[in-house]
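Our consortium's second objective concerns turning raw sequence data into structural hypotheses that experimental partners can test. To show how far this objective has progressed, the report includes one record in full. It was chosen at random from the queue rather than selected for favorable results. The single chain below, 301 residues long, was entered without modification.
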Amino acid sequence: MSKAKIKEADIEKWKDALTQFGLTPNQVKVYVAIRKLGTTAVGPISKYSTVRREDVYRILPKLCDIGLVERILENPAKFKAVPLPTVIPALLKEKREESEKELSILEGIANSLLKEAEPAKIRKEEEHEAVLSFVTERLRAEKAIEMLTRTERELIACSDGKEYVQFFQSRPDYLEYSTPKSIHCNIILRSITEETFPAVNLFWEKIVAAGNSVDIITSAEDHNSCHYLISDRKEALFDISDNGNQKKLLWTDNRKIIDLLITHFEHQKSIMGKKNKVLSPNESKKRLKQSAISEQRLPKN
C-alpha cells in the first residue's frame, strides 16, 4: 500500500465512529494517518492525511489530550497512535463528562425558571426523588407512545403540525398500538398546512375513535416554538433551548417543572382562545381542515 496519500476507505472505516465522540473530519484523518504510519513526525502525517501542516500542529495537542495519540520526546517531536483498547474507555469518559456538564447547565436553566414561578402555583413535591433526563431525538416517538399508554385521565399537548409528520415518519406502525380510553385531551395545535394536516388528522382521529374527549385550539400562526406533552400532570416530555443553541429533548416527573409547563399552556390557551374556539371531538376534524384552508394551503373538497 502506498503511503503517499490517505485512502478514502481508511477514512470511512473510522469516520462514523470517531465523529460520534466529537472528532472533526480532519482530526479523524490525522489519527488514521498516525495509525497507518506508526511512530512518525508532523511532515509525513500532513502528507499522508492531506491535512495542511499548520492544521496538523493544531490538531495533535487535541488528539493527545483525549488520549488518541502519544507524543514521543524526540527532536523533532514524533507521535504514535494509542491502542484502541486503551483509547475507547478514555473517549467514553470524556463523552460522559461532557454529558454531565451539559445536564448541569440545563438543570441550572430549569432552576432559574423555577425561581421565577409564583409559589402559589407550585404544588408540594411528591415524596420521591424527581428525575430530569435527556431523551435522544430518535427516541422522541417511542417516549411519547409510552406516555400515551400510561395516561389514565388527562393529556396536555402543545405542538405544531410538523411534529406529527415527524412522529409518523419515525413510527409508521403507531396505529397498531392500543390507545388510552376515557381520557380528556387538551391540545394547542399550531401551523397546520396542506403537508401536515393528514398526519395531524390521522393521529387525533385515532384518539377520538377510542372514545376520548378532545378540546383543540388550532392556529395557522406559530405563536411560539415551545413543544411539550404532559400525561396526567405527572410526567412531561419537552424541548428546552440551551442559551439559544440547539434544542434538547427532556423527560421529567418533577412537579415544579410540570406546573410551569401547565401554567405556560393555560397562558397560551387564554391568548389563542380569544381568536380560536375550543373544539369538541365532533368539531375538531372540521376545524383542523378549516384552519389550513383559511391560509389557502389546503384545497377545499
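The partners drew two points from this record. Residues 175 and 216 are 20 Å apart (CA to CA). The chain has two domains: 8-87, 117-294. Both points have been shared with the crystallography group to help prioritize constructs.
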